[in-house]
Design a protein that fits this description.
By secondary structure, the protein is α+β, with helices and mostly antiparallel strands. The protein has one domain: Beta Barrel (OB fold (Dihydrolipoamide Acetyltransferase, E2P)). Helix content is 26%, strand content 30%. A 4-stranded antiparallel sheet has the order 1-7-6-3, with no helix packed on it. Strands 2-4-5 form a 3-stranded antiparallel sheet, with no helix packed on it. The longest helix has 14 residues.
Length: 110
Amino acid sequence: RVIVGISDYAQDQLGDITFLDLPEVDDTFEKGEQFGAVESAKSLSDLYMPVAGTILAIHAELDDDPEIVNRDPYGQGWMIEVKPDDPEEFGQLLTNEGYMDFLSGMERIE
């Protein structure tokens, strides 16, 4: 299973999250397909699947308190749980170190 949410960097860039549009349990998505959207004080942003799979669970508390994502993006701020179609896709995901390198490259561009 894969727990999907957004990074601390992403929630910080978005600002206060006011609404999440998330899929339904048993919906299926391809890798890279939009599965939802996040609305914040600053913008409306699409959410994309990191792996192909089927939605097993939705974090229902986010309906009433979407700012949980701002407070705890790596813990209670999870959005969906996914059963991946192909576990080998895990090897294509960024590690934390790879993500930090990616972000440092973005900061140099800005």
